[in-house]
């Protein structure tokens, strides 16, 4: 049998394929022997080799079709994210099958994959001595391939790891030795945190102040709290995730007029989905007057604000028209200027094809270049004593690279000087490259015979907001419908965080908006009333003139914004607008424009079918929950406790809320219970980072109460056990009744609050007398069983 087999002729690949087809026909005829798996002829390049371990999802189809080319295509696809490389892999496979290996391999060499690799190298992480980068090196290296949910989970893990890392660092000899030569121990911790963040290319809070040598201990405490907070890391990682994904899309050629102008299809889709989610969230929320409980639908209020694109567009046109009226009245002449970045900032040519000298930058890099050029122009004009005013609009080329359209007004005798100054700085960098003289800078005089100055820029304002009245207009950049392209432009600005519109000179718009909140009322102030009347009438020209003119400086404004100091969740001082005042009169002229404190609350589902948002509010006004809220506020105010809306929400939710080291408040069986707790370092080592950072104070995800995380896991368990013990002793603690029957407030309790002789204080006196540590009582609360 062996001899006969050896004499049989060897079958070639074509004969084997024919044999397999015949076998399949036979099984089709027989029927019952038909195999469950479809039989296909093997490729003429079939191999018995096992797939390599490094084979990616993108490469698997290519391996099955052309395994002998693996070494070639693997060098291009090995590190390419799937959302970028999938298209190129399919295109490569199609070309290989239809036109052969030469055409397909040439395509692979000339497509955008090489540029993608260069872009990825910009975000490469060199962990070095950073323990944080070493721990999360793998996840951060593939950040653009992760889902948003994965990014959020990664942010939480990094925040926890960073917190534990700082705690461990405090116990090392390195920290103790570093403190010897430093006046501030907090500064040593901050420098350690900077070393951890450096490979991640993430800027730490207050880094600018640190470089100037002006950072304070309080700022360091806030910075370390942020570095241990999930939400802070989420904002940073999501920002990097979005930038890297769109940067790779630009490198791959997915952002151009032949593919998707201004922004990639993925970017536009994500923007639309985020807009939809935001809209749904707004529909499910109300704003509530914290004093009266009156509510209004949040989505209706947003539609009435500057967040509405139509209102934002109208306001811009009013301001632009006001500047033009001032120019006509005082004899200023206008000019329409276009500033464009050098060719190295562009990824794709205007007619298609990759730019060979592209520097691998992002639209943000090009925007920084334009801002730098404009800063030089503005400084030179100031040195020459030349004043200008107007507007500038930033919009993208088809490949996402921004350019500026500027409409400015100036004195006629200064026009030539302005043009020469702008021209020199616009071509200062790479000004000798081909076409730079006419492509990089354009200066066009406004001719009234052709149209108004506002008409010159109206098209760009509409294109960059909502495409109003551009239904039948064609985009010169892409050849597509302008109104449709407005969505892509807005998605582009949102993704890269580029400010589209900016006023040059004139009075600030913030004061204008605050005055318009007051409406037509009179404030009995001769300094403010005329400005208020102009703002209420929507007359930007009159408002600007009353504020000091189009060339007014901030220090000479007639009406300015008044701010108040407030603290955010990190106890960081922030400024909030409170009203307006006139520097001419002084503090006595202050007018409050924010008379009502509003809080965002979820809609009451039971009242969601009411006829109007106001009707929804009237139901809430007399609800039991509203009664409890008002009662809690009165009790806290009576005890002179500083609180906010989030504290009230947490109390109503049944959570114990700590207002300071000595006072904890909780609802227990419709009573507001006050727990006066002695503070000592032995209970849970509650020392802030200013006391050598033994503990971190952070805010939990719900932002409802403070969580105290210590370096000892057992101590954290004791804290949780401590809360349970607090519930057990609620019955004996001093309390105030806050609810009896629905919709009814209980009578005010005229009894005097209990003093230091209450039962809880006696318990702590007993502990001190018996020399029992508070932490021991937390472990064994039965110690007090015999206490009477």
Automatic annotation (TrEMBL):
- Cytoplasm is among the record's keywords: no
GO molecular function terms noted in the UniProt entry: endonuclease activity; hydrolase activity
Instruction: Please give the residue ranges the record annotates as the region Disordered.
Output: 608-630
Keywords (alphabetical) are:
DNA replication, Endonuclease, Hydrolase, Nuclease
User: Could you say which protein family the record assigns here?
Assistant: Belongs to the phage GPA family.
State what this protein does.
Answer: Possible endonuclease which induces a single-strand cut and initiates DNA replication.
- What name has this protein been given in UniProt? Replication endonuclease
State the organism named in the record. Gilliamella apicola
Q: Lineage of the source organism?
A: Bacteria, Pseudomonadati, Pseudomonadota, Gammaproteobacteria, Orbales
